[in-house]
Amino acid sequence: MRFLLSPHRFIFFVLLAGTLATTACRQDMQDQPRYKPLSQTSFFGDERSARPTIRDTVARGQLHLDEARYTGKMDGKDVTAIPIQIFRADVVRGQDRYQIYCTPCHGRLGDGRGMIVLRGMRQPPSYLDARLVNAPIGHFFDVITNGYGAMYPYNSRVAVDDRWRIAAYIRALQLSQNALPDLQQVANSAGAKSTPGGQQ
User: Fold this and answer.
1) pTM for the predicted model, two decimal places
2) Does some domain include residue 147?
3) Residues 37-94: tens digit of each pLDDT
4) Residue 102 belongs to a domain with what CATH number?
5) Residue 73 parent element (H or E)
6) Given the DSSP bridges, would you call strands 73-74 and 77-78 parallel, antiparallel or unpaired?
7) 93-135: per-residue pLDDT in tens?
8) 92 falls within a domain
9) How many domains does the chain fold into?
10) Virtual CA dihedral for 128, 97, 104, 145, nearest 10 degrees?
11) In angstroms, how far is CA 187 from the centroid of its own chain?
C-alpha cells in the first residue's frame, strides 16, 4: 500500500521540523553577559571589571612561606643544603625526572654530551667541572627553575620538590664519578660499626 501525504500535512511536517531545528540555534552561551579582561564597568564603584585580590588572602597553591624551598636561596644567596628531606626513593625519582628532562642536553652521566650536542647544538657544561662540583645545591635548583644561558626555565614543567630531587641526583652523579678520597674510608668505617642486623 502506498502512503500519500496531503499538501496540508506535508506543510505541517515541514514547519514542525523547522521549528524543532531552530530551537537548537539559541546563542545563550555565545552571547552571555561577560566582561573583556580589564574593561570598564559601571557595576562596581571603582569601575573595574577585574576585581583586586582580597587583602591577606593567598590563592590556592601559592603560599610559599619557605623561601629556601621555593627559590633555592636565602637572603639572596644559594642554599648549601636541600631544604626537604631526601630519601633513596627521592633520589630514584630525581633520576627518573633527570632522564626525562635533562639527558637530552646534559647526557646520562652529566658530562654535557647529550643527544642534542651530538646533533650540533651548543654543549652545556659538565657537572664534573670543578666549578659545578663546588657549587651550592641551591645553584642547581635555581638554574632548573629560572634557566641559564641557552637553557630555558623548567618551573612550569617540573614540580618544586622534583627540582630538589633532580638536584640531589646531580649530586649523586658528581659523587659517583668524582668521589672524595676519604669517601671510601667513611663507607668502610660505617660498615664496620654496623651490626649484623643492620643497626648501628
Assistant:
1) 0.65
2) yes
3) 888 888 888 888 888 888 888 878 778 889 999 999 999 999 999 999 999 999 999 9
4) 1.10.760.10
5) strand 73-74
6) antiparallel
7) 999 999 999 999 999 999 999 999 989 899 999 999 999 999 9
8) yes
9) 1
10) -80
11) 35
